[in-house]
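Q: I'm a student working through a structural biology exercise. My instructor gave each of us a protein and asked us to get a predicted structure, then write a short paragraph describing it. Mine is Cyclase family protein. I'm not confident about reading structure output yet, so if you can add a plain explanation after the tokens, that would really help. Here is the sequence I was given:
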Amino acid sequence: MRIIDLSTAVDASGWEPDPLKHEIMSPAEGGRHMAAAMASAFGIEFDPAELPDGELLSLDTLTLTSHTGTHVDAPSHYGTKAAYGVPRHIDQMPLDWFVGAGVRLDVSDVPVGTVGADRLEHAFTEIGYRPGPGDIVLLRTGADRHAGKPEFFTDFTGLDGPATELLLDLGVRVIGTDAFSLDAPFGHMISTYRRTGDKSVLWPAHFTGRRREYCQIERLANLDALPAPTGFTVVCLPVKIAGAGAGWTRAAALLQDA
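A: Happy to help. First, here is the predicted structure for Cyclase family protein. I'll explain a few features afterward.
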């Protein structure tokens, strides 16, 4: 079996609209920290100098949002109310949603803005396959080339409302993208709304989740490394964060060797 990593890193050196903080405690600092904590909490005295090289274990402390790096959005991310009932948090979602046959749709030719249902139908024809229940659809927009730069948050394409509805009508429950969002960039949506007065252009992919239960994987990567648009399994199990609207994932594609 071959494994292809489909994830972007949680990287404090890259640009993020919500700053990421990553503090690293060295193994030597970790030894002193552990000794102090054991003495304070349990009254156990221990000299970290007795450890090999005076080192114990490193410790990483991160301050970040649940939407940093590759992550899965839960239904509760889209709003507090839904037409189908109470939206579930990420820790409440069934794990079998996040292991399934993958379908890559290449829409990298679409400029900044949105992909419509007609373009998706064209993509189905291009690959000779129509997604079905349980499939995990991955949109290759090419936006991951900008990961870690401000352009990643402004230069990409998303789904419009009818395109999102089409995938859900086919039985898809998890839709992924290598872009920052499954919706169009913020600036594009706002300018379109101001020009047209049409509120349906505002976060249509996300707001569809208020009517129909589904999940998004955002900030994927390496979709161009997949050897074919089908014939692989996607694994994108989200981290189990109680009461959260999203969870980080190390998304990957599994391919059986010939």
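A: Here are two points you could use in your paragraph. The CA atoms of residues 241 and 252 lie 20 Å apart. The chain has a mean pLDDT of 96. It's a good idea to check both against the output above yourself.
Q: Great, thank you!
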